[in-house]
Each structure stands twice: as structure tokens, then as C-alpha cells.
Design brief:
Strand order of the largest sheet of chain B: 3-7-1-14-11-12-13
Number of helices of chain B: 18
Radius of gyration of chain A: 19 Å
CATH topology of the largest domain in chain B: Aldehyde Oxidoreductase, domain 4
Strand order of the largest sheet of chain A: 4-5-10-6-7
CATH class of the largest domain in chain A: Alpha Beta
Bound molecules: flavin-adenine dinucleotide
Strand content of chain B: 15-25%
Number of helices of chain A: 11
Number of strands of chain A: 13
Shape of chain B: globular
Number of strands of chain B: 34
Shape of chain A: globular
Number of domains of chain B: 3
Helix content of chain B: 25-40%
CATH architecture of the largest domain in chain A: 2-Layer Sandwich
Oligomer: heterodimer
Radius of gyration of chain B: 27 Å
Largest interface: A-B, 27 and 33 residues
CATH topology of the largest domain in chain A: Uridine Diphospho-n-acetylenolpyruvylglucosamine Reductase, domain 3
Distance between the termini of chain A: 46 Å
CATH class of the largest domain in chain B: Alpha Beta
CATH architecture of the largest domain in chain B: 2-Layer Sandwich
Chain lengths: 291, 804
Amino acid sequence: MQTPASFEYERATSVEQALALLEQHGPEACLVAGGHSLLPMMKLRLATPEVLIDINELPDLGYVRVEGSEIAIGALARHVDLLASPVLREHYRIFEEAEHVIADPIVRNRGTVGGSLCQADPSEDLSAVCAALGARLVIQSAAGRRTVEARGFHVGPYETLVGPAEMLVEVRLPIRPGAGSAYQKVERRAGDYAIAAAGAFVVLEGGMVADVGVGIAAVGAPQFTAPGAEDYLRGKEPSEPHLAEAARLAAEATAPAVDQRGTVEYKRHLAGELVRRALRSAAARAAGQEG
Amino acid sequence: MTVTDTENTGSTEPQLSPAGNPMGFGRMLRKEDVRFLRGHGHYVDDVQLPGMLYSAILRSPYAHARIVSIDTSAAEAHPKVRAVITGATLEGLNLAWMPTLSHDVQAVLATDKVRFQGQEVAFVVADDRYAARDALELIDVEYEPLPPVMDATKALDPDAAVIRTDIEGKSDNHIFDWEAGDAAACDEAFAGAEVVVEQDMLYPRVHPAPIETCGTVASMDPITGKLTVWSTNQAPHAHRTLYAIVAGIPEHKIQIISPDIGGGFGNKVGIYPGYVLAVVGSIVTGKPVKWVEDRSENLMATAFARDYHMKGRIAATKDGKILAVQVDVLADHGAFNGTAQPTKFPAGFFHIFTGSYDLQAAHCKVTGVYTNKAPGGVAYACSFRITEAVYLVERMVDVLAYELGVDAGELRMKNLLRPEQFPYTSKTGWEYDSGDYPRALRKAMEIAGYDELRKEQAEKRERGELMGIGISFFTEGVGAGPRKHMDILGLGMADGSELRVHPTGKAQLRVSCQTQGQGHETTFAQIVAHELGIPPEDVEVIHGDTDNTPFGLGTYGSRSTPVSGAAAAVVSRRVRDKARIVAAAALECSPDDLEWTQGRWSVKGDPEQGRTIQEIAMLSHGSLELPEGVEGHLDASVVYNPPNLTYPFGAYICVVDVDADTGKVHVRRFIAVDDCGNRINPMIVEGQIHGGLAEGVGMALMQAIAFDEDGNCLGGSFLDYLLPTALECPSWETGATVTPSPHHPLGAKGVGESATVGSPPAVVNAVIDALKPYGVRHADMPLTPCQVWLAMQGRPARTDLALT
Ligand SMILES: Cc1cc2nc3c(=O)[nH]c(=O)nc-3n(C[C@H](O)[C@H](O)[C@H](O)COP(=O)(O)OP(=O)(O)OC[C@H]3O[C@@H](n4cnc5c(N)ncnc54)[C@H](O)[C@@H]3O)c2cc1C
């Protein structure tokens, strides 16, 4: 049996209290949401927080709802909530497709959006989804709230803009009428982290790409995205040659690391292929040609 | 479900017991599942004893390093720590090294050097698990790193570091050379052959990874001197003898209890340092000590499987008659030679690599080497390395088909042994007991719709889509084994069994084998039911406790039904014979006048006159006067020494689709026709096959324990070492043919490992077949998306090393 080091446990009942506890216990304290990233690391003693602040009981942070021209997702929304959300299905199929291939039902039942983004694992699928969609993330501290771009959120692997006495409370997505979106992932086995994964949305106007976003996970794409590919595609027809070129540009923007999932060359190739497929499918959906 | 199945069993027993179970062979739900499904299984980690202490092992971060010093003072000062044991402590007890099952020794705790990452260095006993684990961090070990030998192909290089400096005079990493078959005849066949094809292939190191990791609770009673050991193991009696030899404790004072075992697959055959350390911990502290390893410890330090680098050669005529097979093997045994197989067979039964074909000649040469990896080698349902043998020959046949440009199915059909050739003595000396191979292959092809599949494949190839069809035909030799030829550490491989029928006609069967999920409590009860007419629900199968069961060698190598199952049948027949005498006394006739029908002895020609086995049970315990020399009660015992192995076989067909742009393999269909002779419980047989097929998909597509050049194990967690899930497995299509074993009392053959042995080459052959348009002839497992893509580029990777 794997045995974590000893730690104190506190249960927060409000965001304010959670932040106060973080403040009180200092940098050795740690929030725990679904625990599916943190607890395995604690069992292996790769993480040894002195205090765990449990935020699972915080009320009203598990929502997925439309607020004006945006979709707002509470930080405690679980993977399973995103998978089942009618709001997301209506506006962004990318969520359903990504969630289908994140971990397994056991992890999805507990794991949260906030935990996924704050874990900042380079392979985290939701980071790629949020990057593709140009999400904005709401961070709260005792001093108040601030909003940052998903595309600037990751400071490095396992590091984000969230400070020691702060917490992520919400994800906000712009609604883009007519957008098509899709997610593609190749893994060695169901429930494994991606070898590479890519998501995209496309908005068409008069058959041309009016707006586009690309997100890429697991292959070292800076901020989980590929702006060069997006810029290239904007204003163009989503034809196969154009998609192929965008995919090539996206692949070029990656910086994969070799591990047993694949060589650098393969991962880069795969990233390009998945970007192409995600864009193709997103464009087809935007054109109303694919479900 | 209480359906009786007669299609496969070779015998018709339509009768149902009062509980609705078959009165003998047939489908019935597993008796043990009543407790398992309700969460009432009782595993080693469930054992709680008064005053029990907990323990943890400090392991080496290095693959190869000299131990300069170990400072345990801080750990000893921990308020909850009861004992800290190091190699030096054990040296004082003459316990620092223990014998392996292959005439080598293995360190219990490292003394001089560490020889693989994860090797046991120190042992802490404490009041609770957390304290034991905390204390590990307080032990200060100074290492001087040495160059590790991680690439088996370089282990014998003159400049390779010598791993086993503990063996006097050892100046290289060589363990053994071994050969089988006729080298001269083989050379001759190759010299005269029209076609010779050669192929290197690796069966990578994999791990059995049972869901329950290994563990032990040891309790040495300081007053009586009795040692009780609860442990995860597949061979309790062999363990008892080993503890007696290793620790010098008298064997009659040792009781080994194997409670429920959560999967073994060969991982729980041997004795690990942790087991011995729990015993030492109990002796030192005077308290029961529990040691249970975690997942990473299990994957990194316990018995791995395979790791065979094989160079195969196959000779044939131009029109596809296979003449000979030859193979050179470099066997990576890790840091200690701890493979578990019958003594005379250092490469296990690998020399059954002639497979299912009629050859003129065959020869193999195996060289074993030490590397800085965990020991093991014979595990993961391998039937003593028949996995490697089947993989070799079934890949070679496909490689030959590729070179000849012929259909792999036709090529096999042309070369399979014919039914009239049985019993057949292979070119490496195995005596195959029975078989009808073409029938099994035809049946698999029928279920698959083979011709249609080939048509579909041709159409898809036109469109640039990659679809592959892979066949594997395997023959296993299982049920070790005849005492004359087979022993483990000098213990002959015969199994005892005892059957006692109580006065009311309920029975207890005691067996030496050890179920780890195979369903023995059901199957063995059915054997007694079949032989005696006692309903399976009235037969309790007792196992897993050396104080309460007869001696025997345990469960691995698919030997339970071939050996212990035969023992159960024979002991039942002995009881039946005794019952006949009792019945004759009661009916006042001669035993010769009686005949046996469905659980009853009755007078020939007057069936009304008879006694059921239940009536006889009461009579034999009662006051009925019995003939001179016949004792009362109704029981018997037996030691069954198998005359030969049993030879199950099967034909497997796998259909895959490969995504040409990502390299991802999708197993679309898998057809498995197994012939394991008579099936005692066809449902349990199918369960065993389903599990083995899943394992085959795992090995073929995702599993390997690779190492980087610094000696780091790259498969030390379930994040890195992947077990297949339902999503990777198609809905298995199983079929059966029945060719009973002529020498097994029930006509049964072992089947526990058939699918694990037979399926990997079917999957690999299918993937390679799919890649044919790219000119791919071979790529090593696991065929991950990356490996497939690399193979399409003509440069598949070595899967025993870190990708670069
Ligand atoms: C077997 C398995 C397979 C997986 N496979 C995948 C996969 O395929 N793809 C994928 O993308 N992910 C995968 N995951 C990761 C999974 O998505 C994450 O574990 C999970 O969703 C993280 O959320 P959590 O709520 O469990 O986070 P926790 O483990 O509770 O927390 C993770 C980190 O985030 C911090 N944190 C949590 N909430 C907040 C907050 N609101 N504000 C600030 N910090 C916070 C915690 O302090 C901690 O440092 C897998 C996990 C497992 C166990």
C-alpha cells in the first residue's frame, strides 16, 4: 500500500474561508478538489503538503451556465458535469469529445475543471480545450477577483498564475454562434494520458474561416496552442491543402519530449495529424455538414 | 445460470442437483463468487492479528552501485519503530542470501552492492504502516554508483561490468548455455532448403501485475516455536519446504496459509525477500509482522516475465513445406537467476518451439545472462516459456508466408500435424498426447469468415486502408509433470489429494494446488460430483493451508487440472471402490455383482437393489459389519504422478484496423478456438480464455518494462505499465473442439494459460499483415501507435530500451 506523509486536514465551507485558510497556513497548504491528481502524488510522496484544504463542500461552484454572451463554468464542475452539459453540447462539442477520452468514469466523477487547469499537467486535455476556445479564467484572492487569459495561465509545467493564497473560481468562454468544434486524441490505451491531443473551433463566414482556435496537449505547445496555424487559416477556405498547411504549422510549434509514449518526431507528426482532423471536423460542423 | 452444457464435455450428464447445479460437468456459477462479489474475500492484507506490527522496505534508487555505508540510527530513534534490519543484520543470522529456484542465490537485503533499481536494502518494523514508511526516509545510505548493464545484447561484452561479484571467480555475466534438438540434422535441413528466412525478434520483458500485490503476515510463536505465515502464494507446500531450508525452522513447525489470492499469473510462485523479512521481523520483535508491497514495488522488484531476444530461422521448400526451425536465444534473467521452472529445464519448455508443425529437424540454443534488472523470467501465464516458443514459431511462419507471398492460413494448413500422427514425438522430444489440428483451424476460419475477410482486406488495400488478419496456431505442453523428469528444487511434481465423505454424505476434498481466481472450489467439486454423484454444492474444496492439505507443488504452468484435478478424480474413484464394498456388505452380495450408475451402486440386472453414495456414507460410519480387512468410514487419499504432460492447442484469428496516419491499432475481432480436451466447467474455461486473450492484447499492443541506460525502470506504475481495459478488447468469439487427453483420467487438458500463450502472435501477425503495403515484415511488441508508425517508416524501435 502506498502511504502518504502525515498532513492536517481542513474543510472549507466558503470560498472566503478557503482563501483565509490558505493565507493562514502559508505555502505548505494546498487545496484539494477531486483529488485525482493530488492524492496519487501524495501517496507516492511526490507531494507532501502539510495542510489539505478541502473545497469539495463549497456551495455553488459546480455550475455550467450561460451568462449573457458567455458560458460560465464553476471551478468545482466535475468532468462528468461537462460531459453531460446540454449547454456545452449546444455550443461546443469539443467538450464532450474531450471529456469522453479523459481518464475513466471513476476519475471523471470526482475530478474538477479547477483541479485540471491548476494541476497544469502538460498533458491535461482541458488546458488544450480552454486554450483552443480562448477561455478566460477567474482567480479570486482576499483582495478580490481578477481575470486572466487561458493562453497566459500556464507559467510552466505544473505552474500557473494562481498564487499561493488564491484560487481559481471560474472558467468563462465566449459564445460564438455558428462555431463548430472538435477534439482528437491518441492514447496508448483508454484512460491513458494523451500521446498527443488537439482541439479546434472554427467559425465560417461565406465559406471562409472567420475565426479559429487551436489547442494542443501533451507535446509542449507553448500555452497549449498554435497561433501561427490560426493566423494562417483566418480568411481562408478550410480546404484540405489549407488544413494540411495549418497542421504543419501547428506541428512546428510543438516541442515534444521523448518518453515511452513516443519519439519527438512521431509526436510532432501526430500533433499535426490531430490538428488537421480537429480542424476538418470543426469546419465541417461549422458548415453544418457533420453532427 | 444453471444450464448444463453437454456440447463440449464429451459426456452427457443432464441431471441437476437439488441446488440446480450439474451433477458433474457443465456450466455452473462459481461457488467462490458468493463471497467475492459481496466483498467478503479474505486476502493477506485483510489478516489482522493482535499486536501485529507493520513493515516497509527501503529500496535502491540505483541499478548498480556499491553500498558504502548505511546509517539507521535516525530511523531507530523514531518513537514508533521497533526494528531496523539491514544486510549486515542478516549476515549475522546467515540469512543475507537465499537460494533461488534456479540454483542461484539472491540477496534478501543487499550487503555488498545493489544490482537492480528497487532492490531491497533495509527493512523497518514499526507500530503502523505510516511510521514504517516515514522511517525509510530516515535511513541514510551512501552509494557509489557503478556502470549498469541494461542492454542484454551487451551483457557479454568483454568490457561489461561484472554484476555477480559475489560469486567467487565470476568474471563475466554469463549464466548458462543450453540446447535442445539436433543441431547437425538442422544444419543439414537448412543447407538443402530452397528457402531460408531469418528474423530477429524480442519478446520484451513484461510483468504479470496481479491486482493484489505480494505480501506476508508472519507470526513466530516464541513459546511453541511454531511459525505461521499468511502469504500471497501459488505453491504453499513448496514455500513451507523452502522456509525450512532457508531459515532452518523445522518443517513440522511451519504452517503456510494462502487465503484468497487476487491473481498470481506466476508472480506468486517464488519467495521474495519481503516474505523472508516479515519472518525475520517477527522473530526479532516477537510479534506478528505484516509486509504488503505497493504497486510500484510489485512492478519493479517482483518476478517479471519473458525478456527473450530470439534469432529465428526457418527452412522450407519453394511450395511452402516447412522443413526445419532453428533459434538462438539470448535470455535476460536480471541480476539473480531466479526463474521458476522444473530443474532440468533452464529455458523452461521453450524447446516446444517446433509448435504444431510436422518438421524434419529443429534446434535451439539458449544463453542466459545477468543484467542489472529485477530477477524473474518465468511468469505471466507463460506455461514455462511456451509463450516465447509459440511467439517465435508463429511469427516465423508468418515471416515465411510473407517471403513466399502465400496466405498465412494456407501455409499453416499445409504444415499442421495430421490427426493420425498422434501421439506424436516432436523433434525436440515432446510427446504430444492427442490432437486434431486442421479441424481446429478450419473451425476458427469458419467462425471468422476467413475468405470474406481476405476479400474485404483486398478492397480496403485498394483504397489505402490498413486492415490486417493474423493467425496463430499454438500447442502447449502443460501439467508438470512426471516425477522422473520434473522437479522444483528437488521436489517431484506429483500432487496429493484427500477425500473424506462425512456420514451424511457431504464431502471435503483436500487439494495441494492453490487457486488465484481459477475457480478451483467449483471445478474440483464438480469433479467429485462427476465421479461420485455428490452434488457440487455438497463438496467443500479445502486448499491453501499446509496444515490441512496434502503435499503438492501448487498452481502455475496450467497444472491444476492436469495434476491435482486428476488426483481429485482418482481419489474419488478410490472412494467409489470402497463404497462398492460397503454397498455389497449392505446388500449381502459380492462387489462384483454391483454396477455404478449415477451416484449409486446397484445389483446388476436388479437396479431396485442398490445404495446411493449418501446411504453408503452413513453405512460406512455405522455398525454395518464390513468384510475382513475393510476399515470403516468413507475416505481415501492419493498421490497423482502424471504420466505425461497434456497438450492443449488452439487456433486464433485476430482482425485489426490500423490508422495509417496515427499508427493506432484497433482490434476489431478475435476468434479463439481452443481444444483443452473435455471441459469440466465450460463457463470457467471460457473465463480463463477471455482473461488470457485480454492479456495477449495487452502484451501485443501496450505492455513492456523497458529501462533507460542509467538503469531506471520505465514501467514502475500503472501509468507507465498499461493493463488493457474492456475498451481495447473486442467481444471475444470463442469456439471449441474436443480432443480428450488419452492419459488424463478425465480426458482433460490444462487451459489456464492457453490464451495468454496463443494470442500475442495472432495480434502481432494481424498488425504486421495490415502493414504489408508498407513492406513491413516484423516489428517488436508492444505495437504502440509510435512503434507502428516507426515500423511503417522502416525503423521499428527496440522495445527493451528507452525510446530516443
Ligand atoms: C487514472 C487517471 C487518468 C487520468 N487521465 C487523464 C487524461 O486522460 N486527460 C487529462 O486531461 N487528465 C487526466 N487525468 C487527470 C484528471 O483530469 C485530473 O486528475 C483531475 O481532473 C484534476 O482535478 P481534481 O479536482 O481531481 O484535482 P486535485 O487533485 O484535487 O487538485 C489538483 C491540483 O490543483 C489544485 N487545485 C484544485 N482545485 C483548485 C482551484 N479551484 N484553485 C486552485 N487550485 C486548485 C490542487 O491544490 C492541486 O494542486 C487523469 C487522472 C487519473 C487519476
